[in-house]
Design goal:
Blueprint lengths: L71 H9 L4 H13 L4 H8 L6 H10 L3 H12 L8 H13 L3 H5 L1 H7 L6 H13 L3 H13 L6 H13 L3 H13 L6 H13 L3 H13 L6 H13 L3 H13 L6 H13 L3 H13 L6 H13 L3 H13 L6 H13 L3 H13 L6 H13 L3 H13 L4 H14 L4 H12 L6 H13 L3 H13 L6 H14 L2 H13 L6 H13 L3 H14 L5 H15 L5 H10 L6 H14 L2 H13 L5 H29 L3 H18 L1
């Protein structure tokens, strides 16, 4: 009889077929199984494919778009889902009634009883401080009810959440009056709220109140108080709190010492820092490398590089071995503070110790070497960086190209540009701008245009980059003519836009070439380009300087027709031009228009309206104080201010009072003799225009304008016949 075979084990996926189920696929084979679903014919729904994000355009500093704000009803129902039924009823009653009154009290009286837990639950979600206060008081008056610590804490959070932190500070007094003396926990809540909001003086106020109640904070709370005071630049108050800490015979922790050390470093008191470090060692709280690094960072933020080096030497003498983060922090700070030699020395120490050097260290060293015109060392450092296996980023190449162009080594700079393109780093405007400027200054326009073509092939917006280039040229003095020469060359190649015209016109106005700027404006109108509000604003400046006020006003009207707003310099220039031409009323209208449309208007325009207000309310004597205040602030008393005096006195006061004011200004040396004569003539002319306008308005009102004009015509004919 043949031997019996052993029974096979229960089928499992290792041994082969397994019975399929709704949630299990069929498995066949062994380790290499072929999984199949129960219904393989189901259609595969493709995932929605959106636009592929371009990582080169990603900006980590750009905040994400804000989420849509939910409506009040949506916010209420989102909160109501987390509440108990009775609390939901109370909150809904608050929402329906909107204010405390008989209807709301009637709803609350429907409740059989109110518990402290229910009151705390309602106060945690209530956002109206008035309703929360009324409800808290109403609950306290119920029979058999007594507030507990949970309700007091919830009420405190509610008041602080609605920015009523001063009222929240008084809740501890309310607790004492109601027979519930506050514990340290209530004060800790207040201290935490104020410290999170950087209200250092409020933290100290709560601490003083703690002392009044006879409560001694724990070490943790002392640390929190001192840290809040130091963060808000109240070191003296923090040291007084530390004196109370020692009077209460409490033992310092390492956190306590570090808080004091950071505050002293921030204030630049290095000697006191070393005293605190000595106390740390005596109390067996020896500072480690993280503590020393934190001190160095605080000193760097305060700009105290000498203190940084002293703390570093103290760390080495203390036997603490600095890590790579400490070295990186120090080297970067020294390079930014133009201490490149010290930074390079610590960089060599990093290499000797075999640290993994961050690319930011290389970047800061190269940038500092380029700034000190040590291009050879900077290029050697780049080679060393590539040998170590690092890939230079675009900021390093930008720095090197800027240094090479300033040293007139344009061929090497162009080679670096080609390297950036080869490595796929997507050169920016800061990358090519040094080359463009150098090509323009050396007259190498063929290379200039070739570089523009390469930028266009790389996907750059060449016109925008050219506008930035011309702005850079115009901002640097004595380059306006070179910018104009380059622009004349580029116009023939089709490289021109409205923004480029705007920049060149503005640059020509800066150097006083008003005629050439207006010629460019006429040329712009002859092209297929449409001037914008910036163009007209620049042209207004040129027209006012050339004395063509009428044409400047027409440019202002065109800006208004385009629903645009003139620039502040255009407003200033046009107002001054109108005042000098004797058109004071339109100038005052422009002042009001500017302050109504611009967020930060000129300060002299604001003083203009102040003077007019004083004239209107009959206290014109006070405007001398206003003028003296302007002089104290360094604001020139120009034609705009004087014309506002003329306008205000002509409209609300008399001619004699205006002349008296000008004589007072002359006595106090706020006005010269020559200017006083000019403004007196303007005053007389303005009064004549105002009087003529009033006469003409009266004739129109009585219907006598036609007869008046006819009589004027007859008199002219009679004079002609007699002659």
């Amino acid at each position: 009889m043949p031997p019996q075979q052993p029974a096979l084990p229960k089928p499992y996926f290792f041994y082969g077929h397994r019975r399929p189920s709704q949630n299990r696929p069929v498995v066949r084979g062994g380790f290499f199984s072929n999984r199949q679903t129960l219904n393989p014919d189901l259609p595969v729904v493709p995932l929605p494919v959106g636009p592929v994000p371009d990582l080169h355009k990603w900006d980590p500093d750009c905040p994400s778009p804000p989420e849509p704000t939910p409506s009040p009803s949506e916010a209420f129902f989102a909160i109501a889902r987390r509440l108990s039924p009775v609390a939901r009823f109370i909150v809904d009653s608050f929402r329906r009634n909107q204010k405390w009154g008989p209807l709301l009290i009637a709803d609350l009286n429907k409740l059989r009883r109110v518990t402290p837990a229910l009151v705390a639950e309602v106060l945690k979600v209530e956002s109206n401080p008035v309703m929360a206060s009324k409800f808290f008081q109403w609950a306290g008056r119920q029979k058999g009810y007594s507030h507990n610590f949970a309700t007091y804490n919830a009420y405190t959070y509610c008041l602080n959440r609605t920015n009523r932190y001063r009222s929240a500070d008084e809740i501890v007094e309310l607790m004492r009056l109601q027979g519930k003396p506050p514990s340290e926990k209530q004060f800790e809540i207040l201290i935490r709220m104020h410290s999170d909001a950087n209200r250092g003086l409020r933290v100290f106020y709560v601490y003083e109140k703690m002392k009044k109640f006879g409560i001694v904070p724990r070490v943790f709370l002392f640390n929190r108080i001192m840290d809040a005071l130091i963060k808000t630049n109240h070191l003296d108050l923090a040291l007084s709190v530390y004196d109370d800490f020692k009077k209460n015979s409490l033992r310092e922790e390492s956190v306590t010492y570090m808080i004091l050390v950071k505050g002293l470093c921030k204030a630049g008191r290095i000697d006191d820092v070393f005293e605190v470090l000595e106390k740390m060692r005596s109390n067996l709280c020896k500072p480690d490398v993280f503590a020393y690094t934190a001190m160095i960072r605080v000193l760097i933020a305060a700009g105290n590089l000498v203190g940084c080096l002293r703390v570093w030497r103290e760390m080495v003498q203390d036997g603490v071995k600095p890590d790579v983060m400490a070295y990186t922090t120090l080297v970067t700070a020294l390079c930014q503070g133009n201490e490149v030699d010290n930074g390079f020395k610590f960089f060599k120490e990093m290499k000797e110790k075999g640290f993994l050097i961050d690319r930011a260290v290389y970047a800061s060293l190269i940038d500092s070497l380029v700034a000190n015109k040590r291009l050879g060392q900077a290029c050697d450092l780049l080679k060393d960086m590539t040998v170590e296996g690092y890939r230079a980023d675009l900021s390093i190449y930008n720095s090197l190209m800027r240094g090479l162009c300033s040293d007139n080594k344009l061929e090497k700079a162009y080679k670096l540009f080609k390297i950036t393109v080869k490595e796929g780093l997507a050169p920016e405007f800061e990358t090519v701008n040094p080359l463009l400027v150098s090509y323009a200054e050396h007259g190498r326009m063929n290379d200039f245009i070739g570089l523009l073509d390469q930028m266009a092939k790389l996907g750059r917006n060449v016109m925008d980059d050219l506008a930035k280039f011309f702005y850079f040229m115009v901002e640097k003095r004595q380059r306006e003519w070179k910018a104009l020469e380059v622009f004349q060359e580029l116009k023939g190649k089709g490289y021109y836009t409205v923004s480029i015209y705007n920049v060149v016109i503005s640059g020509l106005h800066k150097i006083g070439e008003v005629t050439k700027a207006l010629t460019l404006f006429e040329e712009l109108k002859g092209l297929d380009l449409k001037p914008d509000s910036c163009t007209y604003s620049n042209v207004i400046l040129c027209l006012v300087d050339s004395g063509d006020i009428k044409e400047a006003c027409s440019c202002y009207n065109k800006i208004k027709e385009m629903a645009g707003i003139p620039s502040i310099p255009a407003y200033r220039s046009l107002v001054r031009g109108l005042c000098m031409a004797g058109e004071i009323k339109p100038a005052i209208m422009l002042v009001r228009d500017c302050l109504g449309n611009v967020t930060m208007g000129p300060i002299e325009f604001k003083y203009t309206l102040t003077i007019l207000h004083f004239c209107k309310v009959g206290v014109a004597e006070k405007f001398i104080e206003v003028l003296e205040e302007m002089v104290e602030q360094g604001i020139e008393i120009d034609v705009t201010i004087c014309c506002s005096i003329i306008y205000g006195f002509s409209k609300y006061r008399t001619l004699e009072e205006a002349r008296k004011v000008f004589s007072l200004m002359k006595e106090r040396k706020l006005l010269t003799e020559a200017n006083a004569i000019v403004y007196d003539d303007l005053l007389v002319e303005h009064l004549k225009k105002t009087t003529a306008g009033l006469v003409l308005s009266a004739l129109k009102f009585h219907g006598l304008e036609s007869k008046w004009r006819k009589s004027i015509g007859d008199s002219k004919e009679q004079c002609g016949s007699e002659s």
